[in-house]
Description:
The complex is a heterodimer.
Chain A: H1 2-6, H2 14-35, E1 38-40, E2 45-47, H3 51-58, H4 60-92, H5 98-110, H6 113-123, H7 130-137, H8 152-177, H9 181-190, H10 194-205, H11 207-222, H12 226-231, H13 243-252, H14 256-287
Antiparallel strand pairs in A: 1-2
Helix pairs in contact in A: 3-14, 4-8, 4-11, 4-13, 5-8, 8-11, 11-14, 13-14
Chain B: H1 2-25, H2 32-43, E1 51-58, H3 61-77, E2 81-88, H4 91-103, E3 110-113, H5 117-120, H6 124-127, E4 149-150, E5 153-154, E6 156-159, E7 163-170, H7 171-176, H8 185-197, E8 201-203, H9 215-218, H10 221-227, H11 231-236, H12 246-260, H13 273-282, E9 285-291, H14 295-301, E10 309-313, E11 324-327, E12 330-334, H15 341-351, H16 354-363, H17 383-386, H18 389-393, E13 397-399, H19 401-404, H20 412-420, H21 426-444
Parallel strand pairs in B: 1-2, 1-3, 8-9, 11-13
Antiparallel strand pairs in B: 3-12, 4-5, 6-12, 7-9, 7-10, 7-11
Amino acid sequence: MAKVFKRTYSYAFLIPAAIIYLLIFIFPTIMSFFFSLTRWNLTSWTFIGLDNFKMFFQEASLLIGFKNTLIYALVTCVLKVVLGLLLGVFLTSKIRAKGYLRSVIFFPTLLSTIAVGITFSMMMHPTQGLINTALAAIGIAGPDWLGDTRIALLSVALVDVWKGVGFATVIYIAGILSIPQEYYEALEMDGGGAFRKFWNIILPLSRPATNSVIILSFIGGLRSFDLVWAMTKGGPGFTTDLIASIIYKQYQGGYYGLATAGNVILFIVVTALALPLYSYLNRKEAEL
Amino acid sequence: MSKQTSKWVAGISTSVLLAGVLAGCGTTSTSSGDTKGQAADSGSKKADEKVTISLLIDNTQDSVNIAKGIVAAFEKKYPNIHVEQETRPGGGEGDNIVKTRLATGDMTDVFFYNSGSLMQALNPEQNLLDLTSEPFQANVIDSFKPTVSSKGKIYAGPIGSTMAGGWFYNKKIYADLGLSVPKTWAELMANSEKIKAAGITPVIGSYKDDWTSQLVVLADYYNVQAANPKFADEYTANKVKYATDAGALKSFEKLEEIAKKGYMNKDFLATTYDAGLKMLAEGKGAQYPMLSFATPALGQNFPDKMKDIGFFAQPGESAATNGLTVWMPSGAYIYKATKHAEQAKKFVEFVASLDGIAAQSAASMPSGPYAIKGAKLPDNVAQAVKEMTPYFDGNKTAPALEFVSPIKGSSLPQITTEVGAGIKTGKQGAEVYDKDVEKQAKQLGLQGW
């Protein structure tokens, strides 16, 4: 009895939140594990064991999907970290119009992904698009950004970086501004230049920011869907298909059980990649 | 108490209705037509109450026009029934919406949706109202009925006209270069070579809208079934495959040939369907493999170019078996759990009547003959559709595969894009498509897969 009274709040306070959590997160998760083992048309289902998973792994375009998802996540993640850090350093230095520049960098983050996708796919049109027309004016024959199967995925990834780098920059700005002034003063005493300041102070001490950016953009890249769908719908053919767009196509085909199996696979893949990464980065941070 | 209430409701609704009629008549002296309709309706039971039924259509301009025209004509004939229209997206997204709304019990009373394999995926026994014994079925042509039937029951009346899959061509370019309509594939390729030599794009590709990439394969079905009349049944029973049936494989190889010879516009992967139509009308491209349902869109955007646009069936090996692959009209279905079955049936009956056809062809250019007995095409029908009629008159048509088999793989647009873009050969494309089809057949739980 006495133990209960020691607690500030009773368990009853947890019930509303717990119900919502159960209803909206736990229940659907369990249901999706179940339906991934069935042939399901939304009203009736037949249990078919692991057939859906077997079929998903036999899907010709799935291997491309895995490869593309990894490439996409890595490319966007690395570029966001590098560019975000450089922009962060630039925007915390003593420059004019800092506030204005910061909002310009952050602006794309506020736009709707679909709008960005549609706009860029028009700008990337090989003959009438803004980008290639501009390149042609200075005598460069631009590539078919979204039609060339070798670069289509990278084109989409670049747009993703353009849209997402502002967010990474903001995290870096916060990280850099929280570095205590004493370090800089000590460096000045010792006579270090700008490079030393970056390499020995900003880079190691903004480690927590780096970790956040890596985790957020890597997971974001793994489960990315909207931009690819707005720009290429996974095409030409299957060349820019990601796991998420493959799953969506299965839903569109009406293969609900199969698509749910795909979601379970995506869940496992994201967890298997993100969890070790997260704990590795955290360990590193603790070693600091 | 309840009796009193219903009397009240009846009284109020009658007076509301009367007021409506009076307002409708306006200043003119009572028009005899209105009074007649009013008298006839009040004769039938419960018909004095104004009923609203809902109708779901896809959001292409043409569908909206047709629905508007037909609803206006219907409401004129049945002033007591109001039809409220709702739109949905087309394509795969639209399929999803229709299936989800049926599954969650949130469907409109009437909805227009594809016939054929897509209709089979709606779980008809459970979701759709059986219209087999409705009198209007006597007006419907027989070849339409199987495409909206499941297990011997008919679930729809036809909405819209039939369409054909084949090649639009620019008659001006053909005349300038002295070309004639090809009857064999070799002739088509020879024509294309000459067009290319003249510096014009021979084949318009609009793969940015990837469904358009399927047309060469789909429109080839007349030739497939000419070579193997039992193809559809054997295909459904998993006995023939695209990659192993010589005739069917040709459909993919034809696309490969177009890709290899570089007949398509350079930016075909970034060209949209609308841009493709523009190229055709403006003579920047000479030929466009497409469904004839592009006719109303062409008519709307390029009315003065319509006489220059012709249409021919996708040719096969020999001129003797040259025929047209035909798409059936969509169906007007009634949701099984509708609360207004009587009114919904009246609406579908109207859609499938000669009056309904008149309203449809006034609202939108037909893209082929109608599926109603005795329905005539208007005199001002598009040149392209005029060129389709000899195939119908000579009985040289066959329904597309999706109307004679429940299976159609959902990845065909991506696969044909790959073949058309030269990423895969025709043979590889056919093999991948066979796998895709196998997936759908298994998910449908068909026998023999």
